[in-house]
Amino acid sequence: xxxxxxxxxxxxxxxxxxxxxxxxxxxxxxxxxxxxxxxxxxxxxxxxxxxxxxxxxxxxxxxxxxxxxxxxxxxxxxxxxxxxxxxxxxxxxxxxxxxxxxxxxxxxxxxxxxxxxxxxxxxxxxxxxxxxxxxxxxxxxxxxxxxxxxxxxxxxxxxxxxxxxxxxxxxxxxxxxxxxxxxxxxxxxxxxxxxxxxxxxxxxxxxxxxxxxxxxxxxxxxxxxxxxxxxxxxxxxxxxxxxxxxxxxxxxxxxxxxxxxxxxxxxxxxxxxxxxxxxxxxxxxxxxxxxxxxxxxxxxxxxxxxxxxxxxxxxxxxxxxxxxxxxxxxxxxxxxxxxxxxxxxxxxxxxxxxxxxxxxxxxxxxxxxxxxxxxxxxxxxxxxxxx
Length: 387
Known about the structure:
β3 (149-154), α8 and β4 (183-189) form a beta-alpha-beta unit. The strands form two sheets. Strands 2-3-4-1-5 form a five-stranded parallel β-sheet, sandwiched between helices. A two-stranded antiparallel sheet has the order 6-7. The chain has helices at 6-20, 45-58, 73-78, 80-92, 95-108, 113-116, 133-139, 166-176, 193-199, 218-231, 241-249, 255-271, 281-299, 302-306, 308-316, 324-337, 350-360, 376-383; strands spanning 35-38, 67-72, 149-154, 183-189, 210-212, 364-365, 371-372. It has 387 residues and is α/β, with parallel strands linked by helices. It contains 18 helices and seven strands. α12 (255-271) packs antiparallel against α13 (281-299).
């Protein structure tokens, strides 16, 4: 079951098609075609990557369908050679072999990657050739690729910022299309992912290739609740639909909150053998609210607590100061006016504190240098810390 995000999924399919024959010349590769998917924790970024992987595995009879290599940023940092060999496998393996490899990589973890990969594609990735693209192009020249590839990297905000690191060299070479390989890079992470990618030297990524993932629209929220109840076999009889609507409405369309509300509903449904007519709805709403509160406590970091007054003022002034420069100027002015009341967390300044608010989901880039709190109730929670 999957709801929403159709625009993102359609664009990823389009990106892979363009990398397969970028200009109609018959040559593979498309420079600067990297996609960025960013948003607060719980927005559903990882779900999008899992869905595009599922879609690719389902298209067993489509010889032009892209294959998805889905890895976590930690694997790229620990062993680039594994990622390179997975790309080679994806480009040359038979469909049945690749389906087994892809599913094992994502469901069983990287400790099983070496044993499930297709044999015979090991690349020379010595330090002298560490960016890996040259090794991949030599092993797999353009004419040997059977399918276009989406290399999807989750938790991209954790990539090292050094553009000359092995990871930086590898990703820049892919982004720049140096080897003319049919590989499209997809980077998904928290709100500070864009600044991390810029630090790595991946430049000129069009705004049309960047997706800020936020809350569901009202109709998507309704669809999510309806499909979820049907999927889990929860009957919603007449008279209880209003309570379901209320449960969803309190979530502000936020995917993680909706997930928590379904958990609260499921707990009570089990107690009453699925008969929601006799369910204790007050208990359901209380449990859902407690789970939302737990989410906010997790996102309200120690650094935000250290700078509680600063955090509150940023949230209070957000409507009047929606731009990054304006918000940083406000942060600096507050600190200059009273460094004790408006202190920075240890080893932080205006720039790094702003990035931390992005990382924690208190701020999110909405386009055109406009930043907002992606979850209205999280903003309310932070403002209430003034008490």
